[in-house]
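Hi! If you just cloned this repository, the fastest way to understand the data is to look at a raw example. We've pasted two of them here, unedited. The first protein comes first, obviously.
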Amino acid sequence: MSLNWKSGILICVVVAYAAILLIAPIIAILQKTFSSGIQPFIDTLSSPDAQGALRLTIIITACAAIINGVMGILIAWVMVRHSFPGRRFINSLIDLPFVMSPVIVGYVVIVLFGREGWFKELSIAFTPTAMLVVTVFVSLPFVIREVMPVLRAMTPEQEEAAFTLGASRWLTFRRVIMPGIRPAIVYGLVLTLARSLGEFGAAAVAGGGIQGYTENATIYIFRSIHDRHDISAYSMAILLGCASIIVLSLMNFYSKREN
C-alpha cells in the first residue's frame, strides 16, 4: 500500500520521537560506559558492592514475582467468581499502586513498621524485608488485572462438565482453568518482573539505601551518580536495561508462540 505525504510525515514524527526518547539515551550511555574500553565495565560489575546490589535485586524481584503470582491469581479468582460486600471498593483499591507515589509507599512502611511506628514490634523498616514489602505493593496489580478479564470471558460449561465427571475443584482448576489463564499469568509476571527490577523510590525510602545491606541495583546507580562514579552508574544501568529487554523479548516470544 502506497503512502501519501501525510502518512510519511506522521511516520517520520513517530520514528524521530522514539529515537529521541529511546535510542539516543541508550547510545549515550553505551558511549560513556565503553569510552575507556570494556575493562572498567567488567571491574565495576565484579566489585563487591555491585554484586551485593545485584544479588539483593534478584532476590527481591524473584520473591515479589512469586508472591504476586500466587496472590494475584487468588485475588482475581475471588473478584471474578465471588460476590461479597465491599467488592467494588476492593476492586478500586487494586489500582492504588498505579496512582500512589512510591516515595509515599516507602514512608508508610516507616510509619507502620519503624522503631516508633504503629507496629514497632515488627520493626522491619530499613531492612530488605521492608524493600520486599514495598516492591510487592507497587507491582501488585499486574497479574490481577491480566487474569481478571480472562476469567470473566471463560464460560462455566467446561468446569461443570469436569465436576459432572467427578473431578475435584483443584483438578478442574489445574486441567481446565489454568490452560486458559496461563498466557495472562505470564504477561502479568513479566510486567511484575520489569516493575520490580526498576523499583527505586519506595525501596530507597523503606530500606534506607544502606550500602552493602539495603542497596539494590537502582539505589546503587543513584549513589554512584551522587559520588561521581559515572562508570559504575552507567554499567549498572546497562545491565538493568539488558535485563528488561530480555524480559520483554521473552514475553514477545511467548506471545508469538501462543498465537
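Ok, and the second one:
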Amino acid sequence: MSQETRFTVLQQIQRAAHQLAPAIREMFDRAGLAPADLKTVDDLSRLPVFKKESLVELQRQRPPFGGFLAAKDEEIVRIFVSPGPINEPQLRHDRDGCGFGTAFAAAGLGPGDRVLNTWSYHLVPAGLLLDEGLRSVGATVIPAGTGGSELQAKLVTDLGVTCICASTAFFITLAEAIEAMGHSLPGGWKVRTALLGGELGDWLGKRRRLEARYGVRTFAVYATADFGVIAFENGAQDGGYEVHQDRIVQICDPTTGAPLPHGEPGEIVVTTLTPGWPLIRFGTGDVAVATAMNADGTVRRIGMLQGRVGQAVKAREIFIYPRQLEDLAIAIPGIGRAQAIVTRPQQREEITVRLSLLPDADRDAVLAAAPARFNALSRLKADRIEVVGTDELPADAPFVVDRKDA
C-alpha cells in the first residue's frame, strides 16, 4: 500500500472515529489536529502515544469501551475480555480473524490442512481469531482449546493433523505425549507446520532444534488482543516480522513517544487501518527494532521482541533491554546468564555487566569477548565486566537492574 493510499485510508477511518468515538475526538483536540491533517507520518507523530494502562482506566470511566468504539452496537459480533480487564469488540466486517488469515496464507496453509488449535477460546480473542483466520484460507480446524494434553495428542494422530497452533512449551508436551504413546516421530505423525508462541532467550535456536527433531517447519506472528495480527513471518528465517498492510507501525522512544531512527530499539506503536475500533498511536509496551522501512517513514519489518518497556533501564540516554543481555549470553560460548546493573556514583552513569559462567567456560576468552559484544548489542560501553557465581545470578534474576538512585 502506497503512502498516499495508506494515509487516505487513515484519514477516512479517523474522520468517522472523530464523529463517533469521543476518546478519539479528545485525542485530536488535545493535539490541535483534525483527521484531515494526517497526510504524512510526521503529522501522525504529532499525536501522543496512547498507553494500554490508559485504556483500562478509560473503560472503567466509560464502560464498556472507554469511548473508542466507532461503530454501531449491531456491528459487534463478539466482545472479548482480556486481562486488565480490557473489553475488545470484534466487528462484523472482520473476515479473517483480524489478520490471522494473511499470516496463515503466508505460511502456506490452505485447503487440505487439518489444524489443531490449542489456544484458548474462553473470553480472550486468541482461539477464535486463529480459528477464523484458518477457516478463511480453507483449512479444517480442530478447536481443541487449552489443556488435556493426552487427548489432544491422540487427536493429532487419529485425525491426521498437519499443523499445530500452540505455545512452544505445549507443542513439546504434545510431541512427547505422542512418543509416549509408542509413535516414532517424525514418521509417526503428519504434522508438517506449527505456529508457535514466542519466547525470549534463544527462541530461534529452539525452533530450529524442534524443526530438526520433529520434521516440521515453524512460523510465528506478532499479535496483541487489541489489534489481532500486527506483523507476521513471511519467508525470512531471521525471526523478523513483516508489518500487516492494515497496520501502521512506528518504533518510538518509550518516554517521549518520538519516532526513533532505523535500527534503534524502542516501543512498538501501532495505528490501525481498519474501522470500528480505530486505535491510533497505541503503545503496545513491547520493544523491538525496525529492520526495514517504507518510503513514507513507517516501519515495514520489525525484529524479534526485546522485552517490555517497563523492563528497560536508561543509561546515558540509551535504554538497555533484557533481550540484549540474553543475546550476550547466547553469542559468547561459556556464559550461563548475564545481567547489567546501572549505577550513578558521581555525575556519570556507570554500567556493570555481571556474568555467570558454565562449568567448561574459558574465562579469559569470555572476558575478552564480552565488552565488544555488549557494545555492539546496546551501543553502550560497559565500565566493568564481572564474573560472579551461579548462585548470584539465579534463573529468576532480572536482566537489567536500575540502581541509579541507590
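That's it. A detail worth noticing about the second one: The longest strand covers residues 335-343.
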